[in-house]
Amino acid sequence: MVEEGAYWLAWAQISGIGPVLLRRLQQHFGTLATAWNATKVQLGEVEGFGFQTLEKVVQQRSRLHPEELFTKHQQENSHFWTPADTDYPRLLLETPSPPPILYYRGEVELQENLGQKPMVGIVGTRQPSEYGIRWTRQISTALAKNGFTVVSGMAEGIDTESHIAAMKAGGRTIAVLGTGVDVIYPHKNRDLYKQILSAGLVVSEYPTKTPPDRTHFPRRNRIIAGLSRAILVIEAPLKSGALITATYANEFGRDVYALPGRVDDHPSQGCLKLLNQGASFILKELDELLTMLGAIPQIDGVEASTAPEQLMPTLSPELQTVMNAFSCDALPFDLIVQQTGMAAGSVSGALLQLELMDLVSQLPGMRYQKS
Length: 371
Hints:
Order of helices and strands: HHHHHHEHEHEHEHEHEHEHEHEHHEHHEE
Oligomer: single chain
Radius of gyration: 21 Å
Number of helices: 18
Strand content: 5-15%
Distance between the termini: 26 Å
Shape: globular
Strand order of the largest sheet: 1-2-6-5-4-3-7-8-9
Helix content: 40-55%
Structural class: alpha/beta
């Protein structure tokens, strides 16, 4: 039997099928294996599948063999996850556009993948001021010493400073690349890259040997936002990739913080714009920031009760609606959406909360059942 992960890979090879359409396919059919065998008419029922996309699917799908493709891909890329894998980062999986393939190198920490260890993204300009560098180092050090994993993009400037400071403080850091995980960019960060491999993780949605491309870096910013519980923008001009990361963070329901600066400082203009739009202030008292970050709900494991019986907790109306959809059988995600009449994002969030309460468990292929 071909594994579901092979179908994530196979679908990703078809031109015109990006992460958003893949997620819609999976939600509509329950599994991508089912979607692979769907007719043209059935595929046309999925939002976003227009005539040209359907033609590409029909033409290219017949030439692809998922199992053979997956085996060959494993030989060329030894370490990667698909959304069908239990180790795929949970927070990233809850976004509307999780990468169909996430490659990695370094030291995996399962608590991070399960969302049980808090991760915070730090982003900013490639040309920071002394002010920005000083605060990046202070904040990254404080986060690392308080058990947070620092996530950034290994670019020059703020990214580099955040990675280095976190590791110097004895913490972990994750670098999200816009290249293959084996390609170091910028090249001057080769020593930093080696340090991260021993004190954290390097991840990318691009296969090995993929060179840098200007279109890759804005896309990778959604992964930084998706992995993180909150995004901290240190210094960012108005035309900064850090603002793209902040936009994704808002879309994903993450908290956004910005470091205030002087109104006539070019590197602070983007931060001031974010603050004007409702981002939280990063103030001098870092204890307050740490307290606020610590108050963000984490995906913590729920210990099983030792009592012979455990009463059903009182649920919010939204959670109860999702629970009512279950019978004794496992249900695919799209069927739960249909039965509840709720938006897919709301159902996804409710299922995650129910999992944390040990009321629902997820099965392979995005199927769920009562625990």
